[in-house]
Amino acid sequence: MLFKDTIETSLSILYLTAAMLIVFALLLAAADRFGHMRLRLEQLSWRHGLLLGSAQALALIFGVSRSGGTFTAGLLMGAVVLALLHFEVLSAI
Q1: What pLDDT tens digit does each residue of the chain (93 aa) get?
Q2: What domain range is 43 assigned to?
Q3: Alpha carbon of 42 to those of 36, 45, 48, 89: distances in Å?
């Protein structure tokens, strides 16, 4: 991997992990509260997929889960939870 050493050393600091858990918990709560949930899976474009994939890449930081990033970004974009679940499963294949 290109950034393997950076990810395993700098990004694995305990304080960063704890901070990311707290930050993403607050972001997910806000996304769940204020997300409009109107976009179905068929309505998601390649731009939505790019943003969701970028959110999944945040999982390289310890304390951020891949599915948590997907659901937070998706809810903030206005996607329906079922569409996000399908996207998460399809991206894992």
Answers
A1: 677 776 666 656 778 888 889 999 999 999 888 888 888 888 888 999 899 889 888 888 888 888 888 888 888 888 888 888 887 777 776
A2: 4-92
A3: 16, 8, 11, 15
> Are the CB atoms for 71 and 28 separated by under 8 Å?
yes
Q: What is the pTM of this model?
A: 0.73
Longest CA–CA separation in the chain, Å: 41
**Number of structural domains, the chain?**
1
Taking the C-alpha atoms of residue 32 and residue 69, their distance in angstroms, rounded to an integer, is 13
Residue corresponding to tokens 């992990």:
17
Beta strands in 40-82 (DSSP E): none
